[in-house]
Amino acid sequence: MNQPVIGVLAVQGDVREHLRALESVGAKAVPVRRASELAQVQGMVLPGGESTTMDKLLRIFELQAPMRERIAGGMPVYGSCAGMILLADRIMDGQVDQQTLGGLDITVRRNAFGRQVDSFEENLPFAVLRDGEEHPYRAIFIRAPWVEAVGPSVDVLASVTTGPAAGRVVAVRQGVLLATSFHPEMTGDDRVHEYFADMVRRRAG
Amino acid sequence: MTEEAQVGTARVKRGMAEMLKGGVIMDVVTAEQAKIAEDAGAVAVMALERVPADIRAQGGVSRASDPDMIDRIIAQVSIPVMAKARIGHFVEAQVLQSLGVDYVDESEVLTPADYANHIDKWEFTVPFVCGATNLGEALRRITEGAAMIRSKGEAGTGDVSNATTHMRQIRQQIRHLQNLPEDELYVAAKELQAPYELVKEVAQLGKLPVVLFTAGGIATPADAAMMMQLGAEGVFVGSGIFKSGNPAQRAEAIVKATTFYDDPDVIAKVSRGLGEAMVGINVDDVPVGHRLAERGW
Q1: How many distinct structural domains can be found in chain B?
Q2: Of A121, B4, B75, B197, most Cβ neighbours within 10 A?
Q3: Looking at the Swiss-Prot or TrEMBL record, what is one Pfam family this protein matches (chain A) (predicted)?
Q4: Is the ipTM of this complex over 0.85?
């Protein structure tokens, strides 16, 4: 299966950038706002955006339960920034009643790096990517979360290397679930999407 | 190998606006209103002293908000907090940055502080959003460092007609550029009073290089959905929520209509039982000297 069909959750956030990145790595990318659309895809991307808004819209438009079912059923999912929060089993500094889809055995801290004036970009060692050993990944963090704790079956793929947050985990994978604190869809360097599309291709066989 | 981290880059500033797309940003004047907005699903709140409808009614000079009020709103909500500075008032903007607001709106809704120059927005780490009535104005603001543009509309009226005009105007001028042969882009830049490189970029992209929201007069879910169908990437709602009969319910309805802007069944459903919309005034009844959209150039 050369061209996997990958959905991008399109209730709010930078949907278009993810659609572009997925198309550029050879996937067929479709926006998903309804359960009927979710049923058509082999993998999902949860984009950047406001996690509290996305959580509410997922519940209001009855996507939360079908998404949880697909995740439990082994669908590959990649979450960037707000998407990482949606995928996490546990959340810190969320809104009082904020829910996640869950699936990824991590604790994520929302807005961990601070406010917008603290948002930054930095080169990250990201070895599992193509040429990842030689070419670091330029990562853009926007009011980003970080991973506070990981469960035993979670692999840490990348961590911040400089500044006061050095050592903080910002990219993880557990089985077919992938998450980054930063926004690969904004850089034009599509290696993270390439890595995820390969996960979907392998899963679909 | 690893370089130092950089804050305040164009990508980080413009990227923040990308994360707000498809969302609703709501004007709030108290921490309680900010909480209502957050609970309704707002992607951000805009902290200001008086909503535009009250500024219009009460008159006087309108300025950036009291720092204590902004602090209370920042403490109340976990979503991004924006705040307004007067056009050209770079010190109000410095203060807002120091308070930790996430976006500064250099806004015609407040009384301008400089009738010649806008703020040099490149000097700041915090990103800026600016209003525009047409493409040339939008590109001049981007040249000065704006990382997000919103149509101006006519704030505080509940009359969406100016927002419609401005959105149509910006989109029509972009389509016009796309259809021009390359050798005519030089004159187009002159006519738009905008830098050639930026004009060329817009002609190639078919869109602004930053996110384009709408603002000014949006009062109903259908208003928000119409602006989205006209090409807005998200919506600012000012007086329309907290000057209406049932702010919490109206706020949530506008959020839903903005996500499903192209689905009339959803818009119909969320438009039921909202109570009174803000009363509003026709833009035509606003004396020319009192029209906010004409501030800025």
Answers
A1: 1
A2: A121
A3: SNO
A4: yes
Number of domains in chain A: 1
Nearest residue to B43 (alpha-carbon basis) of B23, B13, B16? B23
> Which residues span the domain enclosing B60?
10-286
Which tokens belong to B287? 């004396």
pLDDT, tens digit, for every residue of A5-29? 999 999 999 999 999 999 999 999 9
Work out the mean pLDDT of chain A and round it to a whole number.
97
For chain A, say whether B256 makes contact (Cβ under 8 Å).
yes
Answer yes or no: do A95 and B78 touch at CB < 8 A.
yes
Residues with Cβ within 8 Å of residue A65, at least 6 apart in sequence: none
Give CA separation, A55 vs A11, A94, A174, A194, in Å. Answer: 9, 11, 22, 27
Mean pLDDT value across residues A65-82 = 98
Q: Is the pTM of this model over 0.90?
A: yes
Q: Minimal Cα distance from B77: which residue of A?
A: A95
Residues 134 to 193 of A: which have CB under 8 A from any B CB?
136, 140-143, 161-163, 183, 186-187
Q: Binning pLDDT at 50, 70 and 90, where does residue A204 land?
A: confident
Determine phi and psi for B115, rounding to 5 degrees.
Answer: -90, 5
Distance from CA of B138 to the nearest CA of A (A): 21
Q: What is the pLDDT of residues A83-126, one digit of tens each?
A: 999 999 999 999 989 999 999 999 999 999 999 999 999 999 99
Structural domain for A133, as ranges:
5-204
